[in-house]
Amino acid sequence: MDELQNRLASFIRVEEGRAHQRGREEVEPVHRPARERIRPPSGRSDRRGGYGNKDHTRVQQYVHHTPLNAPRARVLEEALRANLLAVVQIPTPKGADENKYCRYHQNRRHTTEDCNTLKDKLESLVQAGHLQKFVHRGRASSRVGRPPTPHESQKRTRQRADRSRSRSRSVDRAVRGVINTISGGLGTRQPDGNNSDDSQIQGFAGERVDTKGYVDLRTSLGADKDAKEMKVRFLLVEADTSYNVLLGRPCLNMFGAIVSTPHLTLKYPTDDGKVATVRADQKMARECYAVGLKVKPRIANFSSNRSEVAMMELDPRTQFDDRVEPLGDTRPVVIGQQEDQCTTIGRNLTTDHVTLIEELLLKNRDLFAWQAADMPGIHPDIISHKLSLFKDARPVAQRKRRLGNEKRRAVEEEVTKLLEADFIREVKYTTWLSNVVMVKKLNGKWRMCTDFIDLNKACLKDTYPLPSIDDLVDGVSGYEILSFLDAYSGYNQIPMYQPDRDKTAFITERSNYCYEVMSFGLKNAGATYQRLMDKVFQHQIGRCMEVYVDDMVVRSRSVEEHLRDLAEVLDQVRKFGMRLNPLKCTFGVSAGKFLGFMLTSRGIEANPDKCRAILDMRSPSSLKEVQRLVERLTSLSRFIPKLADRIQPILKLMKKQKQVEWNDRCEAAFDKVKQILSNPPVMRRPDYGCDLHLFLAVGEEAVSAALVQEVPEFHPIYFISRVLKEPETRYQQLEKIVLALVIATRRLRPYLQGNQVIVRTDYPISKILRKPDLAGRMIGWSIELSKFGLRYEPRGSIKGQHLADFVAELPGRPSHCCSWVLYVDGSSGHKGGGAGVVLEGPNGIVIEQALIFRFKASNNQAEYEALIAGLELARDLGVKVLCCKTDSQLVAGHMNGTFQIKDDQLLKYFHRAKQLFAHFDSIEVNHIPRSENQRADRLSKLSTGKEKGQLSSLVWQIVFKPAVECLQVYSIAERDDWRREIVMLIQQQEAGIALRSEESKQVARYVIVGEELYRRGYVTPMLKCLSKDESEYVMRELHEGKCGRHGGGRSLRARALRAGFYWPTMEKDCQAFVVKCLACQKHENIIHTPAAALSAIVSPWPFAQWGMDIVGPFPTGRSQFKFLLVAIDYFTKWVEAEPLARISASQVQKFVWRLICRFGLPKYIITDNDRQFIDKKLVTFYKELGITPLTSSVEHPQTNGQAEAMNKIIIQELKKKLGDAKGAWADELQQVLWGY
Where in this protein does the record put region Disordered (predicted)? Predict the structure, then answer.
C-alpha cells in the first residue's frame, strides 16, 4: 500500500474490470475465409450509417478492414486530391433512395460510408503504405489482417459464454464503460503494455471522468502472513473523494471475497484452503464517511469519443444557463448498437413503466443521432434560412484578422470538424466575407464563432412572434411526468437558402468557407428555428408539449398518457426528418428546469442555482458587481414580493458613476432578499374557473402588486414591482395606488382577461375612478381599467406567509378611525363665483377640488356651497371622522349654533349640511383665519381657468344649480326610459352590491353627473344620454333648426354625436326622421342622368387651388341682392360665398383679395369663360400676385365641376330653408354655410 500511495498523484476511481477487458478484446478481428460473401446483419449499420441501411450485395475483397480515424468520405477526398484513386461513375438504378449518395460511384444507390468497393480500395491503399495518417492507432489495430491464434479463439469463446450467462441473469443490459456501483481495481490477465488509457468511466447520474492512465500493482487483502497476493490494475482518475483506493467487483471476484457491510468485514479463501478475515477500523471508516459528506462534487472535464465530439463541439449554442434540465434521479438506457450509446430516463418510474418507455425508445432509436452523419437534415422544401437583405445593401468583405498560434490551431480543428460534418464548404469569389472569433469555453477549449455583424446589419428583422415565457412556464407546471427533448445540433439541421449560402462566407488561414446549414449568430436564426418548431409540432403545442426555440418539453398527467404523447411527438420528428440528441434528452421525470424556472408537480419554483448564486454572493464592492446582483435579482422577481421597494438602496448605487459606497441600508436590504430566497414561495398557475385576487402596495419610490388565488386553495401566482419614475414620485398617494393598479393590469393582462378580478384594498379608489371630473391621467386610467371588470373589496384576512409580509409592510394603509381634515372656502364676484375644497387624509393623501358656479350666488351662499361640496366628497370616500375648517365665521357659527340664521335661503343650506352630517361618526366645524386657508382660497378663485404649474390631479367641477335644489332626486322618472335601468345598476354598484360581469361591463361606460346620465368613451368626450322626447328635439334642431342642415340620416347621427348627445337607437331614429322631413322629400335631387365613374380631384396643399362661379339671378332680396359669388377650396372643401347686387370684374377682384387676406396666395383659380372672370384688369391682378387663372371651355364645364357641385348644394339647401319666402335667401345664406 505504501508503494501505491507514492505512485498515485491524485484521487482515483475504477471501472468494472471485466467490462474494460471485454471492451479491448471485442475490437479484435475474427478470422473468416477470404472472398466470403458478407452482408450486414439485420438491424445493424456500419460505424457511420443509421439503422436499417442495407448495402448492395457485392463480394468484398477483404474480410477485415483497418479501422480509420475519419469518415470514409473524408479519406476519399484526400485520396482523390493525391491522385491515389479515380472516381468510377455508375448510373443510379430505378427506385433508389434519393436520400443516399455515394461520392465514389456518383449515384444514389448507397451512401459513401456503406460502399463496399470504396472500403476495399481504401484497404488496398492502406496496406500499400498510403493514408497512414487516417489509420486508427489503437492497440487492437496491430492485429488486423492476421488470423487469431487457437489460444485467443478459445479465450474469446469462453468470454462470450460468460457474457451470455451474465446477461441472462440480469434484466438490465450491461453498458460498457458504465459502472453501476462504486468500483475500482481491475484484475489483469493480459501482458503489460503502454500505461496510458484514454477510456472513461461513468457514474450513477451519467457524469463521465477521464482516466489518466493505469498502474499494475501487487495487491494483498489484509496483513496476515497467509494473505493472498495478486496483480491488480488500477485506473488513475481525478476525483473528489475521501478514499485513496476503490476496489471494484472485478478485483473482489478475482480474490473470491465477500463483503459484509453491517459487520464491516471482508472474507476470502486463501491458497491453502483457509478463510482470511479483514476487519475494518470503525473510527477510520466514520472519519472517511464524515469527510466524504463535506466533499463538494466536481464537474469533470473529459475528452469525448468521436461521436460525442461531433455532438458537443458542433453545438452552436454558446451558453447553457437556462437550458432545459431534468431534476431527480435518472439512469442510463442503451438505445444504440454500442453499449455507450444511451439516453436517460427517470429512476422513480415503476418497472412496467420503464419497460414501456424503453420499448418506445428502441422502436424510435433511428430518431437519435450519435454523429453528424446520422442527420438527414430538414428538407429545403419544408424550411430554409433566407437572408432578406436591404435592396441598397452593399457587400462587406472584412479584412483578415491575425490570430495567435493557439487560436489558429483551434480554428483549423473546428474547420476540419465542420468539413467532416458537411456543414461548410470551400467557396471562391465571394462578395460577403466575415472573420472568425474564438471564445474560451468553460472546459478550457475554444469555440469558433463567426462575426456576422456586417451581414446582420444588412438584413431585415424577422418579426415572427416568439411565445410568451410566462405562458410556456404556466403551461408546463403542475404536471406529474415530463420529458425533455433536445435536437441534435438543432440549428445545423436547417439548410441555408441556396442563393444565400455564399453570403455566409468566413475567412481562415488556409481558405474561405461558407455554411451549408444555418449557423448560430445569423440574424433571425432564432425566428427561423421557432417557425420550424411551430410547423413540426403545430398540433401538439399547447396540448401535450411546449416549445421555446430549441427547448422542448412534453408534459402529461399520467404515464399512460405520456406514452401516447411521446409516440405522437416522435412521429412528428420522423415525419419532418429531425434528429434528437440522446445525451441531452431525458424521459419520464417528475421535475425539471425550463426557461430559468424549476417546474414540478407542485407548481413553479425558483431556480435553486440562481438562488444559490445570490445566497453565496458577497456584498458588492464595485458598480459592476452591483449590476450583476441586480440582474440576478431581476431574473427572480416573480418570487420576491416588493422587490423594487426592498432593494431601493441598492438601485440608487447604480446611478452613481464613481466609487460605490455599500452602506448599512444596502446590507440590510441584501440580507432581507437572502432571507426570502432561502425559502422562496412556490407559485402556481391560476385556475381560470375561480376568482383572482389582486393586492397592491405603494412605497415612496416603488409600487408593487401580488396576484393570488384563494379557491380551491390559497396559492400565489405572480409578484410584480416597478420603480417609479422621477415625476411619478411626486404623485399624491391616491394617484400612486391607481398607478400601481394600472401597472399590474398591464403586466398581468393575460391572467386578468376573461376572469373576475377582485382588487383587495381599503382605499376608496373605486369611488374616485367613477368621478366624472377627474384629471387627464386619472380619467385615462379609469377608462383603461374599465375593460377588466374589476371588483373592489376590503382587504380582510390575509393567508400565506409571503403575502402577509407583503401586506404588513404596505405603507399608507388607511384606517377609518383616522381623522380627515377638510378645508373649504367660497368666493363670489362680478366675473362669477366659485369654491375651493381641500381634503387631507392619513399618510399624505390630498384631494383638491375646484367648483365653478354658473349661477349667481352671494359670498355666504358660496361659502355654504363649498362646505356642502366638501361634505359630499368626504361622504363618497367613506370618511367617518372629519374636521371641517373654514374662514367664514358666519358658516362656522351657524353650524355650531352660536349664530342665528335669519336668511331663508341660508336656512335651506343649513338643513342640507345637517343632512350630510348624518353620514359621519364624528364631525366638527372650526373657524380658522384666512391666512391658514390659502390653498382653498386660491381654488375658489379659479373660476376662469387653470393656474400655471397646477397639479394635474385637481378635480374640476362646474355647478349649474345651487346645492339646496340638488337633493339627489334623479330626473329620470319614465318607466320606459332606457336610462332608468343603467341608473339602478350604478346605484347598486355604489351600494356595494356585486353585479354580474355583463352588467359591470355595461355600466362601466356610464356615469352620473349631478342629475344627468353621461356615456364615457375612450377618445371621445362624455355624451349626455337623452330620453325619447329629448332626442326628438335634438334631431329637429340639428336638421331644420336655425343652424341646421337638411342632410341624410348618417350625417344627422354624426352631428348629434359631435354635439355631445347619445341614445341607443340614434342611428335608426335619425334615418326615420330624415325620411319624414317634408322639405327633404320636396326638394331632394331627382337624378335623370346615368351613373358615371367619379374622377379624382387632386390639390397639392390646402388653399392652393380654388374653384369660383357665379349663381343667379335669384329673386331680389334685401339690398337688391340678385347674384351669388361662390368659391370652394379643392383640398379642404371650404366654401366662401357673397351675395351681390350686380356682377363685375371689380367685385370679383375684391372677393379674391378677401380670400387672399384670409387664406393666403393660391396657385390656381379655376373659373368659366364669363367676362367678369377674363377681364384684363383681373388677369393683370392675378399676374402681379403670381396666380395662374384657369378657365373651362363651353363644351367641357366639368373642368370647374367642384364649384358647380357646390352651387347645387347651396341652392338645394336654400330651397329647403326658405319654403315660400324666396326673397329671404340672402339672410339664410350664412346659416346654410354654417350647416354645411
Answer: 18-56, 133-201
pLDDT band at 397 (very low <50, low <70, confident <90, very high): very high
Instruction: Please state the rounded mean pLDDT for residues 536-555.
Output: 88
Is 421 in the same domain as 465?
yes
1070-1101 residue pLDDT tens? 888 888 777 776 666 666 566 666 666 767 77
Pair type for strands 1012-1015 and 1006-1009: antiparallel
Q: Which residues contact 1148 (CB under 8 A, 6 or more apart)?
A: 1108, 1125, 1172, 1173, 1175, 1178
Contact indicator for 761, 696 with CB cutoff of 8 Å:
yes
CATH at 775: 3.10.20.370
- In this structure, the answer to whether residues 1015 and 939 fall within a common structural domain is no
Cα–Cα distance, 697 to 763 (Å, whole number): 11
d(C-alpha 1129, C-alpha 482), whole Å: 71
Residue 480 has pLDDT above 60, yes or no: yes
Q: Pairing relation of β-strands 1123-1129 and 1135-1140?
A: antiparallel
Q: Three cell numbers at 1029?
A: 322626447
Q: Are residues 669 and 727 in the same domain?
A: no
- Together in a domain, 368 and 473: yes
CATH number for the domain spanning 841: value is: 3.30.420.10
Beta strands in 778-910 (DSSP E): 791-793, 820-829, 832-840, 846-853, 881-886
Residue 199 included in any domain: no
Residues 340 and 437 in one domain: yes
Whether the Cβ atoms of residue 1167 and residue 1173 lie closer than 8 Å to each other: yes
Domain that holds residue 890: 820-944
38 within a domain of the structure (yes/no): no
Integer Cα distance of 240 and 297 in angstroms: 7
Min mean pLDDT across 350-364, 434-448, 762-776, 988-1002 is at 762-776
Q: At 619, which CATH number?
A: 3.30.70.270
Q: Specify the pTM.
A: 0.48
Provide the domain count of the chain. 8
Side chain identity at residue 1007, one-letter code:
V
**Averaged over 845-866, what is the pLDDT?**
81
Which cell numbers in the block locate residue 258? 465477500
Q: Which of 376, 380, 399, 388 lies closest to 500, judged by CA?
A: 388
Of the residues 812, 843, 873, which one is the last residue of a structural domain?
812
pLDDT 10s digits, 1011-1070: 788 988 877 788 999 988 888 888 888 877 666 667 778 888 888 888 889 998 888 888
Q: Across all residues in the chain, what is the average pLDDT?
A: 76
* C-alpha cell belonging to residue 456: 446582420
Position 627 in a domain: yes
Give residue 468's identity as a one-letter amino acid code: S
Distance CA(435)–CA(453), nearest Å, equals: 10
Please classify residue 290 by burial: count the beta carbons closer than 10 Å to its beta carbon, then call 0-12 exposed, 13-18 middle and 19+ buried: exposed
Which pLDDT belongs to residue 72? 84
Residues 659 and 692 in one domain: no
List all residues 6 or more positions away from 650 whose beta carbon is below 8 Å from its beta carbon.
626, 629, 630, 666, 669, 670
Report whether pLDDT(493) > 70: yes
Residues 656 and 620 in one domain: yes
Domain final residue, candidates 944, 962, 984: 944
1132-1165 confidence digits (pLDDT tens):
888 888 888 788 888 888 888 888 888 888 888 8
Residue 158 domain flag: no
Instruction: Indicate the length of the chain as a whole number.
Output: 1236
Among 867-876, 938-947, 1126-1135, which stretch is predicted with the lowest mean pLDDT?
Answer: 938-947
Closest CA to 223 of 182, 281, 273: 281
**Dihedrals phi, psi of 164, to nearest 5 degrees:** -65, -35
Mark whether 703 and 643 lie in a shared domain. no
Full 3-state SS string of 185-215: CEECCCCCCCCCCCCEEECCCCCEEEEEEEE
Residue 1025 C-alpha cell reads as 344620454
Decide: 125 and 79 in contact? Cβ < 8 Å.
yes
Answer whether the bond into residue 712 is a cis peptide, omega within 30°. yes
